[in-house]
Amino acid sequence: MVAPILPTLEPRLPNAEARAAPDVGHLRQDGFALRGVGLAYEQRTILDGLDLEIATGERVAILGPNGAGKSSLLRILTGHAPDRRGSVRLDGLPLEGYSREMLARVVAVVPGEVSLPFAASVEDVVALGRIPHEDPFRGLRDADRSAVTAAIERVGIGELVGRDARRLSLGERQLVVLAMALAQAPRVLVLDEPTVHLDLRHQVDVMELLVEINDRDGVGVIAVLHDLSLAAHFFPRLVLLDRGRIVADGAPGEVLSPERIRAVYGVDPALVRR
Amino acid sequence: MSAGAATEARSAVRVGRLGVLRHRPVAIGLGALAALGVAIVAGVAFGNIAVPIGDTIGILASRLGWPVATSWPASTETIVVDLRLPRVLTAAVVGAGLAVAGTTFQGLLRNPLADPYVLGTASGAALGAAIAVLIPVSVAWLGFGLVHALAFSGALIAVAVVWRLARTTSLSSLTALLLTGYAVGSLLAAGLSVAMYASGAQLRQIIFYLLGGFSGASWPQLAAAAPLVVVGSVLILIRARSLNALLLGEETAANLGMNVRRERAILLSLAALVTAAAVAVSGLIGFVGLIVPHIVRLMVGPNARLVLPLSALVGAAFLTFADLIARIPGELPVGVVTAIVGAPFFIIILRRARAGYEV
Questions:
Q1: What are A139's strand-pairing partners?
Q2: Min CA distance, B262 vs chain A (Å)?
Q3: What is the pTM of this model?
Q4: CA–CA distance from B131 to each of A263, B137, B286 (Å)?
């Protein structure tokens, strides 16, 4: 019933210069490997001394209070923080060696808030996900169109086709940009608070979809989440950030201990049902 | 209901309308092409000395290399080929260029109110033209005057200044470009006012340029402007992918694989070049570059691959008709006609389409 997910792409090697970069040790050759990563903005330290490895097919939630550096970590993973310190490798190669287009074929980012300057149908928006794959001159070909259709069906928004994406509810819009990211046929999906504006039902829907995409299609999922309960329920691995550092990394049971919740969030852990 | 079943149920609704929508652009393109053909023939036939439609088509066909028996006086052929045709084709080329530039600026700046003149090209060109009028030297070569040269350079210099200044602000890049464009435009407009104030008897010449029109069109001018407009538009069209990527903003565009800085610089330069070539031969003609892209988007959606070529065709047809209408009462400025015809038409379309479209 569920359409097979889009054809997996051969990993593309960045240029020779990047490949010849010095070896940083026994880092994993698939997925992300961060060593000593830091980021500062106008004298203020946002992230400091981060060591983190995330394998390609993993499902990881990044947690932490406001200002802990979660979104900054995502910006680093998606190549939007050129002034960071430390080394970031993707599939064994330095992130700097990737062009935006090469990166877009591996990592898809589900945008949080989107605005459209012009009316665009749902399928127009989903088709944007094919941009890194489509022929620069001829545009969408049949393979791209079927990838768009597959992504629309995967997310279950067939009934929204033809509608103006600007007139959808927040929940529907979230599904549309998720379908766009899936049409990109990524090996890793990166999401920044994908459930922030959604009601409980839609939160669970999106989470189940992410689990399914990860389990069945093998697409890695890295998501910044605010809701500890959702994260603990749907993600096997949690990374907890506090004031720019990783304070815990592991299974929900280990990471979300009552003492740690009290220490990091400063609230009574009884408020968090796990 | 289990979550899995819910997902299955949602997936069960099939995608049905993709196929239907795919054929519309071709029909719209053919319609626009036909309208352009009619506009060109009508534009050539109409004038102080009316040329019969049959003769008009015959002359055009023979010039295109078709074997047509000559049945018209030589003077008619002179009127058609030397006077009317360059004018009509210049209107078509300028209309296409302004529509393409408007589509590009709206997409780049992610602003539905943007038009080809938004980053100072209009005031730059106007000031250039005014200075040319005031300089007491008459330079003319093959129908080109100082006015054309300075209007062209003025438009390009204005955009270059806006681009340079916007890069050094701490604002977000799009806001910076728009605000700097507005500021530089105001400054140049002040310069224009001074030039007009000081122009005395030559004021009429400046106003003539500001209102825009094709009465001075000639083959050499067309030969200079058309390649710039056509080549610039084609180069924009082959970068349509970048304009599409920008639909959801610059960060998403980067995540979709676009080198935002480089593509923005290239597209902006090309759109400025096309605009400068257009305003150099026609003066300032408003509305075409603003409304044509919106009319086309209403019909085919936001995909720049379709919007750019269709806007070019619709813009060419629209401005050719507008020039024809401008000639009926004598010689009205074309910019007046585009506004009088375009504004109500645009408002009607927006009201009709309110269910599915908002600007």
A1: A135
A2: 12
A3: 0.86
A4: 71, 11, 21
CB of A63 closer than 8 Å to CB of A13: no
Other Cβ atoms less than 10 A from the Cβ of A267: the count is 11
C-alpha radius of gyration, chain A, whole number: 19
Q: Give B113's contacts in chain A (Cβ within 8 Å).
A: none
Output phi, psi for B276, to 5 deg: -60, -40
Residue count (chain A): 274
DSSP conformational letter for B202 = G
Closest by CA position to A113, among listed B241, B258, B251: B251
pLDDT in tens, A97-114: 999 999 999 999 998 778
> Given strand A32-41, what is the order of strands in its sheet?
A44-54, A32-41, A85-90, A93-94
Question: Is the per-residue pLDDT at A59 higher than 70?
Answer: yes
The helix or strand, by DSSP H or E, that contains position B8, with its residue range, turns out to be helix B3-11
Q: Which of A114-118, A125-129, A141-145 is most confident?
A: A125-129
Residues in chain B closer than 8 A to A78 (CB atoms): 255
Q: pLDDT tens across B7-28, in order? A: 433 333 333 344 444 457 888 8
Report which residue type is found at B238. I
Q: Do B245 and A131 touch (CB under 8 A)?
A: yes
pLDDT at B143 over 70: no
What is the CB-side half-sphere exposure of residue B89 using CA atoms within 13 A?
Answer: 20
pLDDT tens-digit series, residues A198-212: 888 889 989 999 999
CB A207 within 8 A of CB A234: yes
| Cβ within 8 Å, pair A124-B302 | yes
Which residues lie closer than 8 Å to B140 by C-beta, 6 or more apart? none
Q: Which two tokens stand for residue A116?
A: 């459209």
Smallest Cβ–Cβ distance between A212 and the set B7, B244, B251 belongs to B7
Closest CA to B312 of B36, B118, B112: B36
Beta-bridge partners for A188: A107, A220
How confident is the model over A212-256, as pLDDT tens digits?
A: 999 998 999 999 999 999 999 999 999 999 999 999 999 999 999
Chain B residues with CB under 8 Å of A156 CB are 7, 9-11, 13
- Residue A195 CB coordination number (10 Å): 22
Backbone angles phi, psi at A253, to 5 degrees: -60, -40
Lookup: tokens for A54: 């995330």
Q: Where are the beta strands (DSSP E) in A9-167?
A: 32-41, 44-54, 59-63, 85-90, 93-94, 107-110
Pairing of strands A59-63, A237-242: parallel
For residue B83, the 8-state DSSP code is: I
